[in-house]
Each structure stands twice: as C-alpha cells, then as structure tokens.
Amino acid sequence: MRTTSLRKGENAPLLSAPVLLSVAVQGPASDVSALLLGAGGKVRGDQDLVFYNHPAQDGVSVAGSVVTADLGRVPAGVDRVAVVVSVDPGQPGGVFTRAPVLTVTQPGSTELTYTAPDFTSGETVVVLAELYRRDGGWKVRAVGQGYASGLAGLATDYGVDVEPPAPDPVPAQRTRAPGAVVDLAKVERVAPALAAPARQASRALAERGVGQRRAAVYLLLDHDWHMEELYESFAVQAFAERVLALSANLDDDGTVPVLFSSGDQPFLEDIRLDNYRGRIDQLHTQVDWGWGNVAAAMRHAVGHYRESGARDPAFMVTQVGDEPWDKAEVRSLLQNTASLGVFWLFVGFGRGKLAFYKNLNAATGAQFPNVAFYDASRNPGAVPDERFYAGLVEGFATWMRG
C-alpha cells in the first residue's frame, strides 16, 4: 500500500466510507478520544465526546488507540470530527514531548501518516487531526494543536463540559524577607552605569506591590530585516541594558538569556552585568537577517526555562517590530504557557505593524491572563526611565499579584 506523509495544516480527500485513525504514542500512557462538532466548531452536547466510557456516537467509535468514523453514517448536523489524545490522568506530571503519530487508512485509498512537531510547552492534550466536510465529501486535516491547560483548555475551544481542578497560574514563588530592600551593590560594583536605571526599576516594582518577588527574566529580540537600522543605531543595545537593569531586581544572578528570532533556529546567548557593553552588537552579527519567527523563539525560551529547573516564574520580555507571520501558533503558545508560570510582555518598537499584539486581550473570546503589551515608541531610548519601567512592569505586577 502506498503511503503519503502529511505536514501540519495539510489536508487530503477521503472516501465516504469507514476510516480508521490509529494513534501511536511515544511517552506517557495516553487516552484517545473523538469530538463530534457542529458547524460552529462546538459539540452539540456532552454525548459528542466519544471516549472509553462512551465509546460510540453517531457513526464514530473509539477502541483503545483507534478511532473509527463511518463517514456515511455521520449525521448532517456534525460538520467535523476531531481526533484527540490526552495524557492518562493517572500519570501526574506526565506531558507530551515527542508528538504522537497518526495513521489514517481506508480500503482502496493511500495510507496517510502525520507526525506533529515535537512539543516543548508541557502539553497534556493534543488535537491530532480533524475530519471535515467539504463540497459534499470528506477530508482529513493534520492539526497537531497541543494544550498545556489539559482538558480545561480543550473544553474552552470545543464546548465540552469538563471541570478539572483549576491549575495555579503561578508556581510557588520565592520572596525576599518582609521589608527587605533589593541589594543593588553588585550592580554598582560590576556595572555602575546601570545602577541608576536599576534603582528606577526597583521603585517601579515596589510601587506596584511586587518589590520582593523573584522571577527569571528572558529577553527575546526581533531580528527581522526591518530592524537593521535599530540595531545599527544601538537602540536595541540600549533596550537590552535597561532589561538587564530590571532583572537585577528580580533575579540576582546578573544574567539574562537572550534569543534572537530569525528563522526556525533561534540564536540563544546571554547578556550579563560583566559583559553587557556592546554585547548585543557583538551577538546579532552572528545571526542572519530574515523574517523574524517569534513563535520559534518563544518555544525555545520556554524549553530553556523548563530545562533550567527554575522555581520562580518566568518574565519573557519579547521585543516585536512587526506582526507575526504565524498568529495562530503564537496564540497557541500563549494559551499553553498560562499554567506554567510564564508571563509574556510584548514590547513594541520598530517600523512594522503591531495591532496583533495590542489587541491580544481586546476580544472577549480570546483573553490571555499571562500577556501584556507595552508600546515603547519608535525610539525607546528617548522614554525616561520612570515611564519606561512603569510600562515594562505594569502588566507583570498585576499578574504576579493575582
């Protein structure tokens, strides 16, 4: 039998006959299920979740790791069938890292296989594929959408009545002793030029009630070709220095991991109190100009944070100069990291459009509690320290207090 491999987002036609979708998982023990969805993308009722305790509904059945859909029997009110794999709830802490493999077979048709990109954000539920109606027939689409928020995240998208325990959006946090003042002596000794902005950052945090909190600060920088002028004018260098001064108040190791978003392989280095002068100029020349891939940089940053074993939440300061080219993937990453103790601050400066980031929390149906946007203007170096740090920490402080 011939076999065709699908890539994420690709589709293929199906016959109006029974189709078998087999799931193979390398990793934690998992459960396979299916969702019958109406034209609005929601289940018609709880009976439309087909799983081991309700193994058949309207032509769709589940047996072990195989979903069978008799497409000729699926009622007209069902527009799509989603194939889902989830980590067995009996495995606390289990997550997907290597993506499950899906095989789609129909008698007389080419066998289809799909392996989603590997997961790095603590995903516990994955929508592998969808069967959907098109022009009087059926097609299958490779999806690979992961949810770190578990069944609760799935319920939000598909209308399933699932009520798992609500995750704590922020993990256990270390705090300084009550009344303690941030000791900036290290900054004054190692990087005296950063002492004044570090003190201003300290005031901004204290005024918002988070002066004693700790966090791992990351810096993600857009390396799209349209940012070239801002690198050459040292505007990005100056911005990085101010973020480093902020980090001295939240994480006393004096180091900020820096990722340049350019292509699918983000460049990761660091900027420190003892090497910050000219550091960004030195690093960015090792990175090709291209279409900045902010989603790839975000995934890489989350992977680095998780591998570090940090107990404190992560403050991902993400400089953006234009709209992302894969908006759906960025939204997915924001959703999937909400329960991991990761806060995203998108700082806009550059020459491109920023409406996507500005409006992330504008729509009532797409709220991200772990996201804020700060417009630093086209020349952030001209923004006084007091105003700059107020904009930088406002959303983060609100999230930490929550």
Q: Using only CA atoms, what is the Rg?
A: 24 Å
Please report the number of helical segments.
Answer: 10
Distance between the termini: 56 Å
The largest sheet is: 7 strands, mixed
> How many beta-strand elements?
19
Question: Care to describe what's here?
Answer:
By secondary structure, this protein is an alpha+beta fold. The protein contains 10 helices and 19 strands. The strands form 3 sheets. Strands 1-11-10-3-8-7-6 form a 7-stranded mixed beta sheet, with no helix packed on it. α3 packs across α5, α3 packs across α10 and α7 runs parallel beside α8. The chain is elongated. About 4% of the residues have low confidence.
Q: Short summary of the structure?
A:
With 402 residues, this protein is of the alpha+beta class.
Kindly list the characteristics that best describe this protein.
402 residues, alpha+beta, seven-stranded mixed β-sheet
Task: Give me the secondary-structure topology.
Layout: E1 3-6, E2 11-14, E3 18-24, E4 30-37, E5 49-50, E6 56-57, E7 60-63, E8 66-70, E9 80-87, E10 101-105, E11 111-115, E12 125-134, E13 137-147, H1 150-158, H2 185-190, H3 195-207, E14 216-222, H4 228-232, H5 235-250, E15 255-261, E16 267-272, H6 279-284, H7 294-308, E17 314-320, H8 327-336, E18 342-348, H9 355-358, E19 371-375, H10 385-401
Parallel strand pairs: 1-11, 14-15, 14-17, 17-18, 18-19
Antiparallel strand pairs: 2-13, 3-8, 3-10, 4-5, 4-9, 6-7, 7-8, 9-12, 10-11, 12-13, 15-16
Helix pairs in contact: 3-5, 3-10, 7-8
